[in-house]
Write a structure and sequence with these properties.
- By secondary structure, the protein is mainly alpha-helical.
- It contains 14 helices and 4 strands.
- The strands form 2 sheets. Strands 1-2 form a two-stranded antiparallel ribbon.
- Strand 1 (216-218) and strand 2 (225-227) form a beta hairpin.
- It is globular, with a radius of gyration of 21 Å.
Length: 318
């Protein structure tokens, strides 16, 4: 088992072990290695201690959420639409990865000094994006710079509350927070009227990228049911020809490196993707072992996925 795959396996085991306990921080190295199916020696070859493992898992979650949120934000022309798109991505990720979500949002508060420091750095990035609303000059009066800090803190507090609720309540309520949280975010920068509109805007239609793990799209000729993970993998490879396993996993929201390896192998066997990297019949485009591209058939399936999940209409821009 490669180091990257083993890290992903151990870190997922840590998140799941903590989520399964009444006292998450009582989890031990023994508990984690038993759940991950690795030896203590293997664990200590990767991490100095459990806090080091926690920090690495937290970094993986922040990197994954950051990449998806930034991509969503930059696809929008207006600040509040970008923030809304990014928030929708975050909420969707929290639903799809509940153990990782609780590790990053809830358990990080009880982490060690390095974890708390990294958490504050991540919050600062969020604050800077929210503060752009003040710089846009939407309102007659400019809110103080500290407003963004208060907004981010309030949003995280609400999400924290939902994540410590029961699993059924959590899954039903997270995406429903999109409008209320956007109302809270927009209010200081755009005023009560525009903030109120956020409460009535529809939640983005379910897409293959946002569907739950049990939901899938059936496409004729694909030879498989295209789940949200498969759709996101195909989309990533289509947008980033030559992407490595790790790049595809990061963008597709797949933490388990074994899972991404198996999925890529399956897509390759179905003739949907081809490996142009080292060992894949071609020259590596990025100096990595694998460099994935869509085949003509894969491009056809990807277009089919987009057609199935595309909204029937788009709201007019104001």
């Amino acid at each position: 088992m490669g180091e990257e795959l083993q890290r992903a396996r151990v870190e997922r085991a840590l998140a799941e072990e903590m989520a399964a306990r009444e006292d998450p921080h009582a989890a031990t190295v023994t508990d984690v290695v038993a759940r991950a199916g690795v030896s203590r020696r293997a664990f200590y070859e990767l991490y100095t201690d459990l806090e080091d493992c926690f920090l690495s898992a937290f970094e993986s979650g922040v990197r994954l959420a950051g990449a998806q949120m930034y991509a969503a934000y930059t696809r929008q022309a207006r600040w509040h639409d970008g923030v809304r798109a990014a928030l929708a991505e975050l909420l969707g990720l929290l639903v799809r990865e509940p153990a990782l979500a609780r590790l990053c949002v809830v358990y990080a508060l009880g982490g060690g000094g390095r974890v708390l420091k990294r958490r504050m750095e991540a919050i600062e990035v969020l604050r800077e994006f929210v503060d752009r609303g003040r710089l846009e000059g939407y309102g007659r009066t400019e809110p103080p710079e500290v407003a963004a800090e208060g907004v981010v803190g309030a949003v995280l507090a609400v999400i924290h509350t939902r994540l410590v609720a029961g699993a059924a309540e959590r899954s039903q309520s997270l995406m429903g927070l999109l409008g209320p949280l956007m109302n809270l975010i927009v209010l200081p920068y755009m005023g009560a009227a525009k903030a109120g509109r956020e409460l009535t805007r529809p939640v983005p239609p379910l897409s293959a990228a946002q569907a739950g793990p049990g939901e899938a799209l059936a496409l004729d000729g694909a030879g498989m049911r295209v789940t949200y993970r498969t759709a996101r993998v195909l989309k990533t490879i289509g947008e980033r020809p030559g992407a490595s396993n790790r790049e595809v996993a990061d963008q597709a929201g797949i933490i388990d490196q074994g899972q991404i390896s198996r999925l890529l192998s399956r897509l390759e066997s179905l003739g949907l993707i081809a490996n142009q990297g080292v060992g894949g019949g071609g020259s590596s485009t990025r100096g990595t072992a694998n460099a994935w591209v869509l085949t003509p058939r894969g491009e056809q399936v990807q277009r089919g996925v987009q057609l199935q999940v595309r909204p029937t209409s788009r709201p007019a821009r104001r």
